[in-house]
């Protein structure tokens, strides 16, 4: 029986800063999963885009002396260019929360929740974190600050806003989060479940237009705009054409398919609690699974411009190539825990694993083939090994690539032990058979690399088909 169609989405990055390596991690993880699913015969809808409303955007545009729309247009183009920089699937869908259809979908989400009786208006005074664009409870604070933005002093704000009755979904959320697999890794599910069991408070879903005009207008109330999170979360279904679903994508991928969202570990409250309650209120199926990854740190500290430790993925790609970055993020960054990344560590991995490892192996085998085989070796697709498939299916990218690199190492050792470069001189026919088998093994490695390193995979298979040594895939860096 064929597997269900897969809907897969990243979070939408806020366009108030240049793309950084942390977002590149999520994008590449999602792309690897999308490519692997397609190669396994599944129909895939892969979504990403940009989150463009809210106070931070309005402030940054003002600082830059631009209108918010012009400011977001420029940044959306930068994020859109990541498609080529990171080697993302050509079929990827890119949504902007300023897209006209998304605006209409967000307003429809509001109307449905309102019709359910889950939206009401009240005056509120509270501490507001501009960084997260949300109100904080005293229990959220660490040393009087937002734990995600310790450099920002929360602002005390009093205003009349609309609220969403999150408290009405206590039991439904507990039931949803009690299902194994709705969150990966498991300890994040327990974290979300524990949070819900402590009791839920309704949350503000609008802002006074007089204070913040840059947002989607609240239906039937010109004095308010939507809270950026309420607006942005709806992108996950607006990108599929919800609510009208003119081309059937929403039914195919969200209703009848398997839905998978990727997000950072700081997103649990938004993606697995607030968003799921909104879906329940609107009578839309909940997300099947959310996979939360850890953060990338540098020299033990969270990356920030003020510390000067931000690693730019574009600069890595310019010097080392797209697939070198993709490989490093998948093999040397832990899928669930925080990982420390420095350029020194990146360079060491590049030289050891790519220049001296994969690149050297491909060169050795195809040099033997070019010199000793009269024609290209016919290679056929082999089923993925269970160890590789199981690792990728459980989002353990590092384990999957550990399997591939162990395979590379063993093949290298086999070449040294069998010495086909000598055998082919003393027993040409036997030597040729050994070389042909090495080429097939290289093709098998290439097969496993295709979802992770598509450019490199293409170069290797082209070399095999041409029976030629490939150009130096990964020149050593001194």
Q: What is the CATH topology assignment of the largest domain?
A: Rossmann fold
Give a count of the beta strands, DSSP E runs of length 2 or more. 16
What is the domain tally? 2
How can the largest sheet be summarized? 6 strands, parallel
Number of helices: 19
Portion in strands: 15-25%
CATH superfamily of the largest domain: HUPs
Instruction: Please state the overall shape, judged from the principal axes of the Cα atoms.
Output: elongated
At the first level of CATH, what is the class of the largest domain? Alpha Beta
Distance between the termini: 51 Å
* Helix/strand class: alpha/beta
What would you say the CATH architecture of the largest domain is? 3-Layer(aba) Sandwich
The largest beta-sheet arranges its strands as 3-2-1-12-13-7
User: How helical, in percent, are the residues?
Assistant: 40-55%
- The overall pLDDT average reads 92
Radius of gyration: 25 Å
State the low-pLDDT regions, or none: none
Write the layout of secondary structure elements.
Blueprint: E1 6-9, H1 21-39, E2 44-50, H2 55-63, H3 68-80, H4 82-85, E3 93-96, H5 100-115, E4 119-129, E5 134-136, E6 155-164, H6 170-177, E7 183-184, H7 186-197, E8 203-204, E9 206-208, E10 217-218, E11 221-226, H8 228-233, H9 235-238, H10 249-255, E12 258-264, H11 268-281, E13 289-293, E14 296-298, E15 301-302, H12 313-320, H13 322-331, E16 339-340, H14 343-372, H15 386-393, H16 397-418, H17 420-426, H18 428-449, H19 454-466
